[in-house]
Specification:
By secondary structure, the protein is an alpha/beta fold. Helix content is about 30%, strand content about 25%. Helix 6 (about 185-195) packs across helix 7 (about 215-240). Bound molecules: pyridoxal-5'-phosphate. Pyridoxal-5'-phosphate binds next to loops.
Length: about 400
């Protein structure tokens, strides 16, 4: 029997995953899906989001080992899975803490027992600042900032509560989304550090432009620049007399190279737990490294060149393939892919020589796994075509 069998002890409410120094219990009961645990994928109602637990654990172990070898702390971004159970696996494999995108996500993970959280987002607003004060009582906390005005909205509730919030200044290393340009890092870093109620812990960045690079070599160049530009910004701030403890990089395509740059202390990849069609297209991983797929049923074959599956944008999202557009999901084991989506329909352009029949089940590799997880209440953990666990996407939809 497969090694995952040791995770499930009969008569218990969960199984135990041993993938590191600590053990992790997976849920078996508590919702209607639980009755299919131990059964085959044919027993599942479609569409269903499957997570291959063996691939998941391998991905988690590999990134943990890269970080160990590079000598940086791994703070995985939990926005990808939003599942406390997967975060426990990451922690068991050596993750230092978690990154999240929203205060609401931080609250869910704090409730689940995670005690070192970084909201890797420029949080703005006194309402959120007050929630952060409460959160800061429970966990070691840090939050991203990229402006003095925004940081001031957090400083005020912390000052009033007689507390201090640790912040990391976001630096834009070329993505062009949020973050101060490196030439402004010293001025903004100093002004933020002077706000009573805040303490500057460090700097962080996210090289999301790596997703648009056409070749693996170009992605790796962006990764090196990510590390070098951020480390240079940190040096500039230190030269101005301010301590910078944390220099935090991270995205899945750039992680392996960015974490090797001298001066980088922390890495925050997220997508690597699942990977997806975009990571395969970028050369970050192989097809067999993709843990998340969507099980669908063919509901219509109106013509030989068109089949329709029961997974549309509500299941797969409408995120494009990157770095080049190319439909909305690859049918596994075939050349055919989903070319059009409506909410409940995925329209497959049938490749030459391939055929689909109504009632047939096919698995689809989505373009972007993070957004797929966020669309579903639960993920179905599978191993060797058997259902082994039901994973709650507890932090899904926490947009505030
Ligand atoms: C600020 C920040 N850090 C880290 C990540 C993780 O990147 P990835 O999902 O490519 O691993 C993201 C993803 O959007 C992000 O926005």
């Amino acid at each position: 029997m497969h090694h995952f069998a040791c995770r499930l002890r009969s008569g218990e409410t969960g199984g135990t995953i041993r993938s590191g120094p600590a053990s992790v219990t997976l849920p078996r009961t508590g919702d209607s899906l639980a009755r299919v645990i131990g059964k085959s994928l044919d027993d599942l109602s479609t569409p269903a989001v499957l997570v291959d637990l063996d691939v998941l654990e391998r991905n988690i172990a590999r990134m943990a080992s890269l970080a160990r070898v590079a000598g940086v702390r791994l703070r995985p971004h939990a926005k990808t899975h939003k599942c406390p159970h997967i975060a426990r696996l990451q922690r068991a494999a050596g993750a230092w803490g978690l990154s999240v995108a929203k205060v609401g996500e931080a609250e869910v993970f704090a409730d689940a027992g995670f005690d070192d959280l970084f909201v890797a987002y420029p949080v703005v607003g006194e309402d959120k600042g007050r929630r952060l004060v409460a959160l800061g009582d429970r966990v070691r906390l840090a939050v991203g900032v990229d402006s003095v005005e925004g940081a001031a909205t957090l400083a005020r509730p912390f000052r009033e509560a007689g507390r201090v919030l640790e912040v990391l200044l976001k630096v834009d290393v070329g993505y062009g989304r949020v973050g101060v340009t490196p030439d402004r890092a010293v001025a903004v870093g100093r002004a933020v550090a002077e706000l009573p109620g805040l303490r500057l812990r460090g700097v962080f960045t996210h090289a999301g432009h790596g997703y648009l690079a056409e070749t693996k070599a170009a992605v790796d160049d962006i990764a090196r620049q990510e590390g070098e530009r951020l480390a240079a910004a940190a040096s500039g701030i230190r030269a101005a007399g301010l301590p910078v403890e944390e220099v935090s990089v991270g995205s899945t395509p750039t992680a392996a190279h960015a974490m090797l740059v001298a001066g980088v202390t922390e890495c925050r990849p997220g997508n690597y737990v699942f990977h997806d069609a975009s990571q395969v297209a970028l050369g970050t991983c192989r097809l067999e490294d993709c843990a998340l797929t969507v099980l669908t049923t063919v509901v219509s074959v109106p013509s030989p060149d068109r089949a329709v599956v029961d997974a549309g944008s509500k299941t797969l999202s409408s995120d494009p393939l990157r770095p080049q557009p190319g439909g909305y999901g690859q049918v596994l084991g075939r050349a055919s892919r989903i070319e059009k989506l409506s909410e409940e329909h995925g329209v497959v352009a049938v490749a030459a020589g391939e055929g689909f029949r109504v009632g047939e089940r096919v698995r689809v590799l989505p373009n972007h796994a993070c957004v797929v997880a966020n669309l579903h209440d639960r993920l179905v953990g599978v191993s060797e075509e058997r259902v082994e666990a039901v994973l709650d996407v507890a932090a899904r939809g926490r947009v505030r």
